[in-house]
Amino acid sequence: MMNFANNTSHMEGQSVSLRVSITGSIIYVSVHIPIILLCVLGNALVMTTFIRFKKVRKVNNYYIFALSIADFLTGLVAVPLAVANRLIISETTCRAHSRPYLFLPSYVLCAISMCLLLAITVDRYIAISRPLRYHVIITRQKTIIIIIFCVAFGFCYGKLSVWNFGSYPYKWMCERNLHDAPKLTIHLAASFLIPTWLLLLIIAYVRIFYIAYLRRDAVSNSKSQRDKSVQWRMRMHTTISSAIVLGAFTICWLPNSFKYVLKIYLATDPKSLLAVQTFCEVLGYMNSFMNPIIYGWRNHQIRAAYKQILNDCGCFQGNKPDQNSASPDKDDIGSINLTRSMTSVNVNISE
């Protein structure tokens, strides 16, 4: 085997040390601990809500359940591994052949979330543009298949992050802001994938809002004006709710998608490099605990379920909602129930 020059003589790699001072490390960990706790506890609450309350287990709420699992694992696995990878200098965390694997959960879970958001967007489009055929087009079985596809796609896409693209496997990566030309080209090209994907989804939501606007009065003449108003309000609420979830993802992950560009122009030393990395990554991880908040804010049934679970745990004292008598709520992220005599149209965002 050739003795590559890049297979450094870094003697510090033979022992474990911290990238910054003990004080800096404590501050760094302290910033991430609340994010970890909020991600784990918030999404555990969402998963418990879905499993425990039958009223919440609507077809499109399966997407919320899948997103909550991805966000839960982000807090439980991805963030702790990323924190250790950033702070600890060792053979495992600093060699090119092992370092990317510690970030693999972050890439995989982010890709799964992206794919699920795309599925939600398509679901919203069908629900708004084909309301009478929505239940025929979107079924429970199809939704589960789509979620499985999203998970498979996430693993495949996330796996790209561990490819060396010609790099030497034992290259020392810590405290470096330099990359091989092939790998740098890949990273710069990848920086524009998320913005392009988000732009397409935003355009899709503009189209959805436009269709909803055109159809605001497209109700049978036999329906009362009140029914028209309810249908319009529910559809708009559903569309706005799903758009908020996408908007939160966009705000949190756009800086992270340009992280490599920012590192090239702003990171002039190891400390500034860590600062850029921390800012971009913390903002991205925050999205994982924002979703449960959005669900509870926009969905009355989920909010009532939160209160029920917290009340049972002694964390929230209030009137216990009757989980078996939940009535259709007008601010539900999810379902639109028309008059019994008419065709039932279920438009759900949590979806």
Automatic annotation (TrEMBL):
Pfam families noted in UniProt: 7tm_1
PROSITE patterns: G_PROTEIN_RECEP_F1_1, G_PROTEIN_RECEP_F1_2
Transmembrane domains' residue ranges: 26-50, 62-83, 103-122, 143-166, 186-213, 234-254, 274-297
The UniProt record lists the keyword Iron: no
Record CDD domains: 7tm_classA_rhodopsin-like
Coiled-coil regions, chain positions: none
G-protein coupled receptors family 1 profile domain segment(s): 42-295
InterPro entries per UniProt: GPCR_Rhodpsn, GPCR_Rhodpsn_7TM
GO CC, one annotated term: plasma membrane
One GO molecular-function entry: G protein-coupled receptor activity
Location relative to the cell: Cell membrane
Topological relation to the membrane, as annotated: Multi-pass membrane protein
The organism's place on the tree of life at top rank: Eukaryota
Keywords from the named record: Cell membrane, G-protein coupled receptor, Glycoprotein, Membrane, Receptor, Transducer, Transmembrane, Transmembrane helix
Similarity comment: Belongs to the G-protein coupled receptor 1 family.
Entry protein name: Putative adenosine receptor A3-like
